[in-house]
Amino acid sequence: MKLIPQSLKVFKQKSIFVKMLFLFNIFILIAILAFGYVSYTQSSSLLVEEVVKSNYKYIEQARDNIDETLTSLDNLSFQISLQSQIRRSLYLSETTWDLDQLLFLDIIKYLKSVKQANTLISDIWIQFYRYPIVLNQESKYNLDYYYEDIYKTGQSTDWTTPSQNHHGLNSIGRFQANSYGISSSVITFARTVPLSEIKPMGALYLNIKTDDFSNRVQGVSDPYPAFIYALDIKGEVVFNSKIRSDQDELINSVKGAITEKVRGINAGNGYLEQTIAGKSYQILFTSSKVNDWKYISVVPTAFITEKANAIRQFTFVTAIICLIGGLILSYFLTNRIYRPINKIIGYINVLGRTPLSSQDNNSKEDELGFIDRIINYVYYENQSLRGSFEKNLPALQQKFLYDLIDGRVSSANVQQLAEEIQLEFNYGSYQVIVFETVDFSLEDKINLRYRDILEIVDGMVSELDDVHLGVRSIRKRNDKIISLLNLDHPNSKPEVIHDFIQKVISFFEQEYSRTFTVGIGNIYSTIDEVPLSYVEALSALQYKIVKGEGSVIFIDEVDKLPESSFSYSIEVEKHIINCVKTGNHVALHQHLQKVWGDNLKQGDITPEIITYLFQALVGTAIRTIYEVLSTTGEIFSESFDLYKEVNQQSRLEDKKEFIEWMFQSISDWIQNKKQGQDNTLFNQIKDYVEKNYHLDLSLTILGENIGLSPSYLSSIFKEVTGMNFVDYINTRRVEQAKMRLQQTQDTVFEISEKAGFTNSNTFIRVFKRHEGITPGQFRQLHTKEDL
């Protein structure tokens, strides 16, 4: 109990914490009382409103379930009326109806199959108006006998009077029916048949058990104590949900009075609160969309108010507990905060030190004002340390930025360290840009009036209009400038980063004729993710081999490229080797162009694909050299390394030119070596094949025309041409076919004949072996490329 007097004593001493405690407790008290009052007074009406809304959804769902069933029955009855045997039976005359027994037997079987397929139907029968019989799913009966002995209802119903007008599936009413000795409550539906006649010639009847309809609304009403029932146009109860409790018995006993109230409103849908027999009910009703039924849902108001009272009691108890607990907790928290500050003030008073000369204001200042005055005193007392700190501040900032981009700064201390060294990060997003020199070093003096490059880069921000952007740059070795961008990403202009980069690039190109390649990482929302953006910027720079030096490369352009290998099949390699061996530079160039087109498409290319592809092509060159029994030293020089040379080409175009030069050099060496005795023979073979490739050629015919025996020609042909006779002829024929596929509209059959193939199947097989695709695919592919 001493806490209260002590608190009042401190409060009189103008303690800011005691004032805060007092105001905080008043706020808690007002908030809890306001909440409790609203909850206590409004809970009942809100709960009633919510129950009514929910119950309305349930009754609509119940209506839709029944409407769906009625629609299904209507469709089924319509299909039955269209059945050909039933339509035929309706037109039998009074003199012939008892002669065609097989027709009736078929109808009985059909009705039985309908009943078995639709478990909802308990009875189904057809009554004929032209003659006194009834057909159901079991047999054919005399009209009077059927209604007197087979099917009887508790109510007096005139089944024998024919309907004078057509109607669809109508509800006749609810009956306590006895069918074949089994009694059950059913709802009977009738449809006149056939529709093609002016007057009906019969009627189709369907019985549905009342319990089946009750089951379709029972699941809907389970979440609430709602009693649902349906009325027909006469106000008679068609069916109702099952009686589950005394409460349902009570509602069932007063549903006549409820029905009168609902029918008195004379509306399709509505809601009313009614007191019947001293008890209040929430009543909802809605009308069917497919017939004349009306659905009524009844919920006792007492059920809702019981829950509202429980909520009120719970709210009251909770408010009292929260109020008491809040007061105690707030007092102890405030007391805990005040104690250490009170000790500090006591220590200062014991030492007898009163910083600054604001003694006159001591009587008016509280604890926070006193502490603020102490901090100011310490700050000005240590002015010399402040000057030293300012002098070393740039170096500290550079060191911090180095550590930040390399990920050596703890994420928990980033913001604290940045503030301590006065690095202002005013915005919530960060991005790293790497400027890599192309034709100069950062150690170079770029002009006579040497200016620090980092100052130039950071100063470009001031030339941009209306931007929320800060830039801090550092050097990395002698070839890279790392710029850390701090930007207001959600509210900045999308083009601000592009404008900044272009300002830097344009300035150095125009003023100093210097060029940068720029790699740009992604934007991140926290400062400890800066190393990720830095790594992405370096990754983007690797794509300079694709885009060229002096390009601006965003990581977004390259990090979504497909992770696929290069396309360089064994068949393509064979074609290149053959072209090199035969000296066919045109075909070699075409094959290489196809390799470039398949692998070096803009948008799909990566540095890895370039490296592996060109290494594979160098491997093809070495394989070609081995096949002609030579070495790289013999063709080029002993110290010439093909792999090393192709890797040293920095630009993609340089790599492509080197590969073409390499293959042509090997081909020229092979051709020079073959010149001599084989040169004349090769030219003879080539000339003859060029002129006669479209004819039926063989080694015998070729030998006769160039003056050599077939056996000798067979032994040296591959050595002279680099391939066997059939492949050589087919290669020339395929090349001619490719030209015709691209330049003419001839059919594949016509092209195969002109190219010298015996039939189109052979042509397709050979063409696919040489090119990897069919002639039709080749034509389609090159037609798309032309487009």
Topology:
Blueprint: H1 3-12, H2 16-81, H3 84-90, H4 101-117, E1 121-128, E2 133-136, E3 140-142, H5 143-150, E4 151-153, E5 170-179, E6 182-193, E7 202-209, H6 210-221, E8 227-231, E9 237-240, H7 246-253, H8 255-265, E10 270-276, E11 279-287, E12 294-300, H9 301-351, H10 367-381, H11 383-405, H12 414-420, E13 429-437, H13 453-459, E14 469-476, E15 480-487, H14 496-512, E16 516-520, H15 530-541, H16 544-547, E17 552-554, H17 555-558, H18 570-582, H19 585-599, H20 607-627, H21 632-635, H22 642-648, H23 652-674, H24 677-692, H25 699-706, H26 710-721, H27 725-743, H28 748-755, H29 760-771, H30 775-786
Parallel strand pairs: 16-17
Antiparallel strand pairs: 1-2, 1-7, 2-3, 4-5, 5-6, 6-7, 8-9, 8-12, 10-11, 11-12, 13-15, 13-16, 14-15
Helix pairs in contact: 2-6, 2-9, 18-19, 18-20, 18-23, 19-23, 20-22, 20-23, 22-23, 25-26, 27-28, 27-30
